[in-house]
Every structure is written in C-alpha cells, then in structure tokens.
Design goal:
Elements lengths: L1 H12 L12 E9 L4 H18 L3 E8 L6 E8 L2 H7 L3 H10 L3 E10 L5
Antiparallel strand pairs: 1-3, 1-4, 2-3
Length: 121
C-alpha cells in the first residue's frame, strides 16, 4: 500500500499543478484505524460521505479510500482538493460533519498528513 501511495504522489508531482494566479492544489492523507466491531457501519458512512463530496463539492477533485489487505480495520484516504479554500469548505460541509460525528466513536486512531504539491508551469 505504501508503494502505491508513494507512486501516486510522485505521479501527482508531475501533474498540472501551478503557482501564480491560480491556487495550489492541496492533498491530505488520513490514516485511520477503525474498531473491528464497527467496520461495516464505518464503510457505509464513508461511502456516503465520499459520494456526497464528489457530487456536491466542485473543489473536491478526488477521494480514494484504500483498506489494508492484511488488516481491513486500517485504511488510508487520499484526498485531493482544488485549493486550501476548497479543503476548508469541505470540512465545514454538512455531509462531512455528519460523517465525522457519526463515526467518531468507531475510530481507534487517526493521523492526518497535509501535503501541498505544486510545480511551476
């Protein structure tokens, strides 16, 4: 899984990110461990949140959830936003707040990694 994420991030560095008049895209990795007893409910809540975010928020460019093959209670979510402002709007959205409050008791650990990737065009 780490090789896939690193490969994705490297390919993103070569993508169409620019600095200047346009804002820089923002990427966040969420590394989560879910209580095994709540895994089915967590997956449902996550799927609902991803669908709503992709449908309702033009600033949310991509959301990928990858569950660990060896331990399905561990997952990494790769989130790509058009800008820092798009990210900030996302975390204030009603569907994200519903997901966050509804799954808080299901999550054993959470690590957030913020990345701002750009290159000059």
């Amino acid at each position: 899984m780490k090789k896939m994420i690193i490969g994705t991030l490297i390919s993103m560095l070569a993508g169409p990110f620019s600095v200047g008049a346009q804002e820089v895209q923002m990427t966040r990795l969420s590394k989560i461990t879910v209580n095994a007893d709540h895994l089915p409910a967590y997956r449902d809540a996550l799927a609902e949140e991803v669908r709503a975010s992709m449908k309702l928020e033009p600033g949310v460019l991509s959301l990928y959830a990858v569950f660990d093959k060896e331990d399905p209670t561990r997952l990494t979510i790769l989130e790509i936003y058009a800008s820092r402002q798009a990210y900030e709007q996302h975390v204030k959205s009603s569907h994200f707040l519903k997901y966050k409050s509804g799954t808080l008791h299901m999550v054993k650990s959470l690590e957030l990694v913020m990345l701002i990737l750009f290159c000059r065009s």
